[in-house]
Amino acid sequence: MNNPFLLYDFLQHMFRDQMFLQNRNTYSTDSTDTTDSTVDFEPMVPQKKEYESKMTDLELVEKTVSRMKRDKDFLLILQNILNVCNDSEKFEEVNLGVLRGFAQLLDEISDDNCEKPLKLISTTLSERFLTKELLKFTCTTNKVTKLACLATGGFGRIFIGTLEKTDGSKNKVIIKKSLPGKEKFLKSEATILSQLDHKNIIKMVSFVPDSMELVMEFMEKGRLDQFLEGEKVPKKRFYNIILDIITGMEYLEQNKIIHRDLASRNIFVGLNMECKIGDFGLAVKVTRPDGIYKEQDGGISGYHTPPSVIISQEYSIKSDIWAFGLLVWEMHFIKYGGFLFMLKPILDRFRFSGELPYDTVAPRIRNYVLRMMHEDSSRRPPWAEIKKFFSSSV
After folding, report:
1. What is the pLDDT of residues 151-180, one digit of tens each?
2. How do residues 233-248 score in pLDDT, each as one tens digit?
3. Would you state the pLDDT for residue 146?
4. Are the CB atoms for 153 and 248 separated by under 8 Å?
5. Known catalytic residues?
6. Right CATH number for 143-217 from 3.40.50.150, 3.40.50.300, 3.40.720.10, 3.30.200.20?
7. CA distance 99 to 304
8. CA gyration radius, the chain
9. Helix axes 57-69 and 6-16, enclosed angle (nearest 10)
10. What would the CATH number be for the domain defined by 222-392?
11. Which GO molecular function terms does the record list (predicted)?
């Protein structure tokens, strides 16, 4: 337990917050209570100095929780907090930080006899809490308008729509709405995007927690795979697109983020043919010193996952480099005569045979793609070397 008195600090914050003291009757279970709403009432938590020398940290916490479970007013106050804890205008960030610590503290306390309301509240607080970075992007549902559905994926539906700005004008945006039961993926994607700011990473415009919608910038020319199929792209621009992707991936590596779904369908092209990496639904932030992320919630086995990772479920920057090798092959295949409808059967065969048709790929590029997709991850080149190689192709 990082701070044994975090619970006390939370209660002090809460009882001092005038927002919850303005109407004492709202929280009271006694309809005859006529206590003046501005009158301070004694906190139910003993001051820590009085008990600090007499009780252990765990005893202090257990004593407080035991008293909380008997206090209906306190439970009602917590329920009211749930209604505003995602609204940065009504609830200060400092209190949200304490609120998160409180939720984590409750999770650490094992008590089979804990009343259901308290368990429900602590669980809901943990699920609903938004990071400070993400809070800056939150907006209300009535600011977002969905116009048409573009696609449905494994975790959500993609819409084109508009977002109303503070001056009343509307911007065209892309809206990703979570499918039922897949909310954690959208929240994870929004949390990661809220921490990123780079010219080759798709920008998050807003996040709507009430309806679980992620609002992103609109890229005029759409997905890279569809763009390459529909337009003749000059060789120089083609390799500049590859360099855009590499630059974005270097930035992700600097921020210890593994994309885990790097494919041509998840790269988006702007009006001036600049490219940005998108779809961070499977992305993760690495915390281990060795740069490995171990998947715990079921396996991921998409086309752009190295065979060894499908077995081990251990991801790293090197697994993204493998996926980038396959992405480069996809780009050459589509640019030089291949069609999108042909990709799936080819990738299905590749998954079992490990072989790709390289008829449309120059030998020099083919050999480097094979290096990036080497079975031994330690033999795959780093991003700096990859950038140098493709810069020489421009």
Report:
1. 988 889 999 999 888 788 888 999 999 988
2. 999 999 999 999 999 9
3. 92
4. no
5. 261
6. 3.30.200.20
7. 39
8. 26
9. 40
10. 1.10.510.10
11. ATP binding; transmembrane receptor protein tyrosine kinase activity
